[in-house]
Amino acid sequence: MRKMFVVIWAVLLTLGAIAQSKKPNVIVILMDDMGYGDTEPYGMTGIPTPNFNRLTKEGTRFTHYNAAEPICTASRAAFLTGCYSNRIGMTGAMLPGDKRALNPDEETIASLLKQDGYQTAMFGKWHLGNKAPFWPTHYGFDTFYGIPYSHDIWNRDHEGNLITDKNDIRYSWPPLPLIEGDRVVDSITSKQKLSELCSTLTERSVKFIKQNKSKPFFLYLAHTMPHVPLAPSVRFQGKSELGPFGDEIMELDWSIGQILKTLREEKLADNTILIVTSDNGPWLNYGDNAGSSGGFREGKSTTWEGGTRVPFWLIWPSKVAAGGINSMLMTNMDLLPTIVAATGARLPKKQIDGVNFLPVWLGKIQTDPREVFFYYFGKNNLEGVRYKNWKLVLPHLSGTYTGLHGKNGNGGPIGKVNVPMALYDLAHDPGEAYDVQQLYPEMVRKLTGFAELARKDMGDDLTGNPGKNRRTTAIAD
């Protein structure tokens, strides 16, 4: 009898292991400041991108995918938690003196998948807490290697020379730390060392995939490029027609190829959800060192389409259409509930703002699960509302890249402009050039109503509304 019990128990364990192995692996590759038009599938010229092209051929490309906010910290917080970043206080781009950190009470994609039996790893740029214990291993990641914030946040100029001018904000910044787990293990103190990051992060990602091929895993590869200062490795320097920027895109394309190759060689491709996207639009004032918004208006740090609309590829063989194009309105907040649905994990206990797109991914429905998107920026400024193809821009002070751009790694000036209320039909005017509010007053009223709901919920500094449902960040000592 005891022997029979042992046999039955062994069978159950085996069945459990089989069920576990069928959970899809999840890989999210996030570029930093890569614009909508920075690769061949989205319109770039002069830069060969065979692996981005392969993503387009083997998966589905989304054309109306938006980051929740057009800047680093806010966008990454929204992606990992499924929340508008202003709801959880993680706005802007954190600098070394910022004591805020993502509240450990917020559940992330990593923590939810880890609870569901996944091995989890992050390699690259974090930007959600400047010091331990507010680093990835405290938010669901078993493994972390990378940097705490953007690689231009260091005590050096774009050529890697030490800042000596005490009036330069960078003078007081520390060297760029390299972190493994909870420890600073090295510092990046030269452009040459910066140029090694893409290869190192890619190699660590490949190693993680190979080490965990027999169990479900979640890999978050957060590349630090093509954010300035550009630092392509020696083997890619001079390879493109567009200088260091093109060389950097080619190196990122190589990185994508290494991940695709590894999945194929380890026979994991068919059971892996692979997502490739960007945190926000391009930093256009850097001119030839910046990317392309693909014809959309403005770029990073603005709530025009060039700031939030970014490329998005999805591959999941036999589940997601190969060679597909999807024009539904989707945001990076939607990834958490969609990945949770795809893996069978549970949703966060607290309110989130993401919408489950799994039925869309699988081709089960043809209607967009998301109709409304709020464009927040600054600490808590509601600057626009989108409803289907309509976008109501609300009065605000905006940055603008109209004017003189920089060159050879030097940034040009960023202007400021008072933006009046305007209504745009993105179906006919994706460049947001023609205000049609006089023609469609009923649509203005409808979107204004949505704005009022957002103000009551999450607040709006522009109208002095604190909102009822905002949560607090953690504060580091």
Features:
signal; arylsulfatase activity; alpha/beta; 477 residues; Sulfatase_N; disordered N terminus; 11 helices; 2 domains; Sulfatase-like hydrolase/transferase; ten-stranded mixed β-sheet; globular; Arylsulfatase, C-terminal domain; four-stranded antiparallel β-sheet
Q: Assign the CATH superfamily of the largest domain.
A: Alkaline Phosphatase, subunit A
CATH architecture of the largest domain: 3-Layer(aba) Sandwich
Task: List the strand order in the largest sheet.
Answer: 8-7-6-5-9-1-10-11-2-12
- Structural class given helices, strands, pairing? alpha/beta
Contiguous uncertain segments of 5+ residues: 1-21
Q: What's the number of helices?
A: 11
Q: Number of DSSP strands?
A: 20
Global shape: globular
Strand content: 15-25%
What does this structure look like?
The strands form five sheets. A ten-stranded mixed beta sheet has the order 8-7-6-5-9-1-10-11-2-12, sandwiched between helices. A four-stranded antiparallel beta sheet has the order 14-15-16-19, with helices on one face. It has a two-stranded parallel ribbon with strand order 3-13. The N and C termini lie far apart (59 Å). The longest helix is centred in the middle third of the chain and has 23 residues, at 243-265. It has two domains: 23-370, Alkaline Phosphatase, subunit A; 373-475, 2-Layer Sandwich (Arylsulfatase, C-terminal domain). It contains eleven helices and 20 strands. The protein is 26% helix and 19% strand. The protein has 477 residues and is α/β, with parallel strands linked by helices.
